[in-house]
Please model this.
Amino acid sequence: MIAMKQLRYFSLLCWAIWAWEPRSSAQTPPVLNVQVYPGLRITGTVGTVYSIQYVTDLAQTNNASAWRGLEFLRLPASPYLWTDTSAPATGRRFYRAMVIPISTNNMAFIPPGSFRMGSPIDEAGRYDWEGPQTEVTISRGFYMGKREVTQAEYLAVTGTNPSWFQPPNATSDLSRPVEQVTWFEATNYCGLITQRDRALGRISTNTVYRLPTEAEWEYACRGWTSTRFSLGDDPNYASLTNYVWYAGNAESTTHPVGQKLPNPWGLFDMHGNVWEWCQGWGDYYYPGGIALDPQGPLAGSTRAHRGGGWGSPAPDCRSANRGNSNPGDRATTTGFRVVLAPGEP
Model:
């Protein structure tokens, strides 16, 4: 009787911890342990990205759809003590860390961090809507497509290709970015590939493809830089042509993705080629001060897009520059890329 009372008391106070990774001859076997803090002790391969997930009912651990994604973590050391800063004051969470079961060859992992969003008032080519500068923290890592979604990818998922710059309208193949897609079509594409990859077992039920927020987009574009472009300030635009398709070299058309040099995080065409739809509303100014994972306003009339396009002058391809359009608009200068992040089933 005493033992049973002790067990109940302990179960109300503890946080159950479950670290898991696929077994192989080179890996440490899974370990189950229990701690009295909301966190997880992970033993695994340093540099590997793990999906941190939880359930609130231990009986649901064998139910794949019951797990909720918290974040992606690139393991900095092994063993590593991870703490759940979002844990509620009451209740329980049971955690696990799983290797992401997909090929990420076409995606780059963007680690959490902080940056200054927007442009300083003395930046050459600056517009008023790029400020006031805001100190932003991106608290959770995510994957971002290394390249803009191509016409071939869009066609394979939706069965359509709305792009103007495709055969016979251009001497190209379908490796050019898809364009003339509305914001609604871009978000629908994200939903469709989420359903597809879940069904094929490529991603878990608590992971989603979506458009990036403006903050995520600019953070990823900058890649730890604070200059006008991720390649530097480039005051005379002498280096721009090595990285960007824009009005000065694009010859009034899109180009196959990934032909120019990437930014510091391995992302191609973040500047130029086509503008890229973002998740949030576009008709607002930044709040200034400090912001944690800003999502933008709750409502608006336009959606944001970023990066400049093949018809943009050089200053409009800067990291901080912003554009916006009606979400139902189609333009030969606008496409998108996707983010993979924890999300609801």
Remarks:
- Confidence is low (pLDDT under 50) at residues 1-25.
- The first helix runs from residue 2 to 13.
- Residues 39 and 84 are 5 Å apart (CA to CA).
- The helical segments are 2-13, 151-158, 183-199, 214-222.
